[in-house]
Amino acid sequence: MISRYACRGERTRLIPTLFAAVLSVWTPLSLAHFGPIPMSLKDVPIPPVPGLTDGPDPIVVDSDAAIVLGKALFWDINVGSDGMACASCHFHAGADARTKNQIAPSAMQGGDDDAEFDYLADGGERGTNYTLTRSDFPLHQTADPLSPNTAILSTSDDVVGSAGTFGGQFRDVHWFGTGDDDCVRVADPVFHQGAVGTRRVEPRHTPTVINAVFNHRNFWDGRANNVFNGSSAWGERDPDAGVWIDTPSGLQKQRLHLINSSLASQAVAPPLDAVEMGCEGRRFADLGRKLMWRRPLARQNVHWNDSILGPYARSTADTIRPGLDTFYYNLVRKAFNEKYWSSTERGGVLGAPVQRGRMRPLPYDQFESNFAMFFGLAIQLYESTLVSDDSPFDRAERDSQGLPVGLAEEEFEGLQEFRVAHCSLCHIGPLMTSAAVATNAELVKDNPGAFGNQLFAISTSENVITRRPVFHEAADGTIEEAGALLDTGFSSTGVILSDWDIGLGGTDPYGNPLSFSEQYLQLLAGDTSKVVDEDVHWIRPCDFDLPIAVDMDRSHPLLFTRVDGITQQEQDVDDCYNVAGAFVPTESAAAAQLADPAGKKMLSGVRGAFKIPTLRNVELTGPYMHNGSMATLEEVVEFYTRGGNFDTQSKDFGFVFSQAALRFVPDKRANMVAFMKTLTDDRVRYKRAPFDHPELIVPHGHAGDHLSVAAGNPLSADLAADEFLIIPAVGAGGIDDPLQSFEDILDP
Amino acid sequence: MISVASKTSTQCRALFVAAACSLVAANAHAAGAVSIQDWDGGSATLAPGSSLHVLGASGNNSSYTDNPRLNYSSWAHTGAWWNFQLSSSATTTVSVTAQAGADFLPGVTIWTSGSDVFDGGTTGFGGETSTSGFGTPHSLNSTGVLGSAGTLWMQNGEGGNMLETLAYGVGNSAIDYGSDETGWGESISYGIHDVSVSDAFESGISGSASDRSIDIILTDLAAGWYTIYIGGTDHSSTGGLYDVEVSAVPIPAAGLLFVSAAMGLLGISRRRDANAAGA
Questions:
Q1: What is the 8-class DSSP label of residue B207?
Q2: φ and ψ at B265, to 5 degrees?
Q3: What digits encode the pLDDT tens for the residues A82-135?
Q4: pLDDT per residue over A456-500, tens digit each?
Q5: Global pTM?
Q6: How large is the ipTM?
Q7: Between β-strands B90-98 and B213-221, what pairing exists: parallel, antiparallel or unpaired?
Q8: Which of A485, A578, A649, A656 has the highest number of chain B CBs within 10 A, making it the mutation to test binding with B?
Q9: Cβ within 8 Å of residue B85, ≥6 positions away
Q10: Which of B64, B131, B238, B243 would you mutate first to test chain A, the one with the most A CBs within 10 A?
Q11: In this complex, which of A455, A556, A580 lies closest to B26 when CB atoms are compared?
């Protein structure tokens, strides 16, 4: 294996002189190896958010206070209507490792049987409040998990998701004390055992928040907009979004436009979601009213040595106590520019809660009305501290090519297999995902080898879309290849049929497509009114992996040419990935193709595509995939070895295909897993700062099992009694017993 | 030996070259577009009377042809590439055989880069894009003469230093793709095919193919560097393990006499040099 040693400077010296002549001939090619080299996360800057903490009139005037506020809000079970914190689904290496009542009976959109739980492979029921076991995984089971042509033994549109709330119709919050929200709660039509309601389960598995600050957009389907509007997840798409400013002439509503802030966009969605955290109809102003005079973490112990909350903790080294020695109201005032909270006005333009009884509710004030902004930005600033850049992979020295030196041999071989098997084409850059658009675009300038070489390069730029050959479902239902626009950082790998969950192919509440690709198709056809995200206007065609148009006299089945009508791109061609692709179709040619059901030049590959997840700490963030359908990294590697579960719409078949080398050489698979385990930061594994946290009380199924549950929840007699996972408060020094993998947590 | 195709004089006849030839490609000329594998034992030197082996290589199902997603063209990064240097002229056989029980039907092509080792070619050279939307050599034309569409990335004077496509073989009797079906307008069919356009490197191509195995015999193959590409030819298969052997026949007795004479001359020459050095 000359190539292996040739890549590792230290070992080259061990090779007998006899081979030196051979090496000199072979080295140039053997060294090339395949494609991008994953790089260290050390010293990688977080994407800037102009105007947040800098400039003449910043929104946040005390970042440290904002991070305290954000950490408290993130972990506080008082945020949810019935005891769910953000952390309740993000407590285990930033993800969710619960094993009871975690199944949603269908994927997000559609599913083969909508709201019916699937049966187990052995014929047993697997309904609400089920306890997952090792043998349930993977959800898609085949006779030979390594073979592309093998009998499917069982498959399922069920999702191993994350349990959330009981739901219910929101009525009111309690200003003081620690009580849950006043909601009208009844047994859910899907999540119930007999007449007893159980907690609902989110039909996608929770991804980790650690390193999520680098993602251009968040959520599996990217609906957490890169631009935070101060009110909702939808960026510029939300016509009603805005924040209230206290001016000399009174309160004025202004649009907010903070880029690189998808974490804030993400954070403001779950508290109002009736599956995840809130009762139906609750507003953020209600949540502001609920929390403002509460002690942060009033029901949870806080470690005296918490890396962020410690100075505010009521605990001492001798005595642990719940809560912080302050109120949310004070933290907001300390952290944020006073123009966002100083007004004493109530009602008027700010409105009032919905009247649900005879009592007329107190109108909202500015503090309450801007609470979504306080909440989103504080959590974003806290989550921006959750960067795990100290794994063995990060600590390793680099050789002249950028390859790590000093990893164990199987780890290093696994890295090379990871590249050869095409993994690093999507799991690219220091975050191991192309979803880190801005970060990767900046890094490629000085680290081109991290994004490809002569064997295989991936166009890496500020473009939020690219173009590649992917599967397309023709009008008659057959799957064929086509060139399609893809959102950068999103991919379909064939985990499930795309109809079970269309992911990025979905729309927002205003009817706009979630994807940039769909918007860009409309832009090409001349309809700028369909462009709702500004990033779409900056897309430069010559940075596509596969051009959409080229200057050629003959026609091409997938590309626009002179035959169709083309024009030069508007932008310059400086440093184009492919200058031959610096063309676009004329608007009329684009519109004609868009209207042609057989056309293959104006397609998007977004239906069934999901955000490419980071692989950092992946050892601890199972179960895997957007549907939580795989319990172990070995199952994930088997999935890619056989080339995915389904040939479905949008599947990136050039990157996900059956791989004989992985199939026939078990060491290659084992080495890849060994490599992925070098991406675990021990600070995450041992919950050391900044990954320490307050106590958390997580609903973890209900008393009973999947065949019967006990009623008697204090919230309502119609609801099942909760069981809880109690996760003790931990200080900056972390814990003694490391976090376990999902597989180790599962029952056999 | 000239056979199925004749060499074009126009480098731009490529049917689907997706850019004017004057356009500079995405990537400046730089070698190393494919990764060359090692033979068992490491050495790539082939002397007459010896052979090179790889036992138990892993073959994907349709990296050579039959993948409808690539319009049946080859897929460089999922197949396997080897080089060998023939030390002196000899009739040479390239054999590819699926191992017992393996669900693998091979295809193989042999090119020559003459006295220099293949530099690996250039990704995306000339902006060529196949009908299935792949650039080179992600998809490549592995059966056409150099200069035809899908070969510029490796051709001498273009993206690489390859001098001639010599031969290809397909070990799947179901394969018969015409130029109107494939990604680059190439033809791909079962059996052994002579693609060479000159007699500079061999004096004849023969051999045999069956489902699961291929033998290509290159008569009087000239000393120099050769490159072979191997992949599967049955998209419905699962792929499997296969063995590769490249063997050069021993130099015949008459040839040995000639070599002995030559060595004698060489020895004299060396002694003369030594004398000169000592003078």
A1: E
A2: -60, -40
A3: 999 999 999 999 999 999 999 998 766 554 546 688 876 667 778 899 999 999
A4: 899 999 999 999 999 999 888 899 889 999 999 999 999 999 989
A5: 0.91
A6: 0.86
A7: antiparallel
A8: A578
A9: B44, B45, B46, B117, B224, B225, B226
A10: B238
A11: A580
